[in-house]
Specification:
Pfam family, one: BrxA
Distance between the termini: 20 Å
InterPro entries: BrxA, BrxA_sf
Helix content: 55-70%
Structural class: mainly alpha
Radius of gyration: 17 Å
Protein name: DUF1819 family protein
Number of strands: 0
């Protein structure tokens, strides 16, 4: 992953989007062009959003995330695999698109799994952001409300992907990396990401 690219707070507008990612992946697997996918999502109102502008923006965000996987088999898996498998691949796609989520999943979650430390709480999110604010001018310039929202979204992503049982949980669950994703990560030479999925082989 290219760590020279900037931290962006777009996660506040484009959270996990599982339902949208699955709908978009199904259209992509059928061989539609990106423009045709956006058109279809807007015309059919597949995301059930109130305004066309927001549908278009989210559709494009999903397409970018799916392309970030650089792996047709994973796009197909998001479209057709059981929810738990598809959600895990969506998390990987989000990590590849968001430097913020990538670093959180590796430096906080991956590190906890490595140390077999299952404790988790607000302090972990707070510490992560304080450290980033100290290291990075862009992050330091974000408002408190943006940081708060990002913490909430990351916590929700962890619940949605079953790392946490709920938003009040005080421990991490031992996640299991689905073989379809593990194989793709290995064949794409992305093994640095494995600790985020509790995988250390």
């Amino acid at each position: 992953m290219d760590h020279s690219y900037p931290y962006i707070a777009s996660l506040t507008r484009e959270p996990f989007l599982f339902y949208e990612m699955r709908s978009t992946a199904k259209l992509m697997v059928e061989g539609n062009s990106d423009d045709a996918i956006v058109k279809e999502i807007v015309e059919q109102n597949l995301f059930q959003y109130p305004t066309e502008k927001s549908i278009t923006r989210m559709a494009k965000a999903c397409i970018k995330r799916l392309h970030a996987l650089e792996d047709d088999s994973l796009v197909a898996a998001i479209a057709s695999q059981p929810t738990d498998v598809a959600k895990q691949i969506c998390l990987y796609a989000l990590m590849k698109k968001s430097r913020l989520v990538w670093e959180f999943m590796l430096t906080v979650i991956g590190e906890k799994y490595r140390l077999r430390d299952t404790s988790f709480g607000k302090i972990d999110l707070n510490t992560f952001f304080i450290r980033l604010q100290e290291q990075n001018d862009t992050v330091a310039s974000w408002s408190d409300s943006t940081i708060t929202k990002l913490k909430q979204i990351i916590a929700r992503v962890l619940v949605e992907t079953e790392y946490l049982d709920n938003l009040k949980a005080d421990h991490l669950n031992p996640v299991w990396l689905h073989p379809i994703l593990e194989n793709a990560i290995r064949s794409n030479g992305d093994t640095a990401v494995l600790p985020a999925f509790n995988c250390f082989v």
